[in-house]
Structure formats: C-alpha cells, structure tokens
Amino acid sequence: MPEERTKRRAAKDKAEGKAPSTQAGEFVREEIDHVREGKHGARSTKQAIAIGLSKARRAGVALPPPKSGRTSKRTQQSAARDSARGQREPNRKPAARRSRATREALEREPQAAGSHAALSRQAHAAARTRGPTARKAAARKAARTRAARGTGVKRTTAASHATGATRRAKANRGTRRRPASAAKR
Q1: What torsion, rounded to 10 degrees, do the Cα atoms 121, 126, 132, 138 define?
Q2: Its pTM surpasses 0.85
C-alpha cells in the first residue's frame, strides 16, 4: 500500500498536467527510498522500479502496460491486471496474508539495489537501449526544464576552482606578519 504522501504527490503531478510516467515516478521514488532505508530489499534496481510501477498502476495512475516485444507476456499481463485493478478500485487494501508474504520475501533481499551507483547503472543501461536521437532529445528537455526552474549548471571561472589552500594564500597576501627576528631590525 503506497504512503499517503506519495499519493498526494502523484495527484499534484496529475493536476499540473504531467505525464502518467511522471506520476508513476513518485511511487518508484518511494520504493527506492524503502530499499535505502532498509525497510526491505530488492534483487535488482529493475525489480524495485517494477514494484513502484505496479503500485502506481494499482493506485489508479493511467500508466499503460508495456508494448509487446519490450517485455515478457507475463509482465504485460501483470501490468494490464494492475491497471484494471487501479481503475476499478484504486483504494483497495491488499490481502494481509499475501502482503505479509511479499514483504517477508523482500526483506531477505539485499539493499544494494537502492544505491546511487546501482541507479546510475540502471539509468545508463536504459538510455543505451533507446538510441542516440532519443538520448539527445531527453538531454535537451532536461536542459529546458532546468533553465525554466532556474537550477541550471553555473559556469565557473578557473579562479573559482582554486583549492582552499590557494584561496587562503591569496587572501593572506599583504596581511602576512613578518617573523619577530625580522621585525626588530
């Protein structure tokens, strides 16, 4: 069962007119956070993402099942079933026994799937399957949204890259005290 906070964030994304994949991203984030907190583990980052997407579909996010050829028939059927359940009864709680069994199985899994490095590897692998045109379009869109939010990468000069020791030395020029033996002369 997703947290209320996650449902609210997804509802806000929907109200802002954002895509279903963006709304589903909130559920994926929640799942990754659970793995990082140690609430449970995941066999791989891909599994953690799949759990998040399943939660999103069951919570009523209009995320379509993956196209044929991209995943197995079983995954497509499971996604279609989750979507149907989410459209019919988005607030239904899962069966307690099944939920407990799932949680206990996930608790036995490792937590490495939520690490920064694992997420980075997953993102890189997913991008590689998409081709250069799609990657370039994604980069352009990211740059546009960063500019719109005002959180772009700031251009820096060589002087700002100086180390702390160098900066302190520059700041102390002229204010350095002479040794006591030199001051007496």
Answers
A1: -90
A2: no
Instruction: Evaluate whether 85 touches 58 at the Cβ level (below 8 Å).
Output: yes
Round to whole Å and give the CA distance between 149 and 128: 27
Distance (Å, rounded) from C-alpha 102 to C-alpha 97? Answer: 9
Distant-in-sequence, close-in-space partners of 33: CB < 8 Å, separation ≥ 6 = 114
Parse the chain into domains and list their residue ranges. Answer: 4-131
- What's CA 8's distance to the chain center, in Å? 17
Phi, psi at 138, each rounded to 5°? -65, -40
CB 62 within 8 A of CB 25: no
Read off the tokens for 162: 């100086």
Lowest mean pLDDT among 30-34, 46-50, 175-179: 175-179
Task: Identify which of 67, 57, 71 has the alpha carbon closest to the alpha carbon of residue 24.
Answer: 57
Q: Which 3 state secondary structure label does DSSP give 153?
A: coil
Q: Residue written as tokens 């059927």?
A: 77
Which pLDDT score is estimated for 177?
Answer: 60
CA-to-CA distance for 23 and 109, rounded, in angstroms?
27
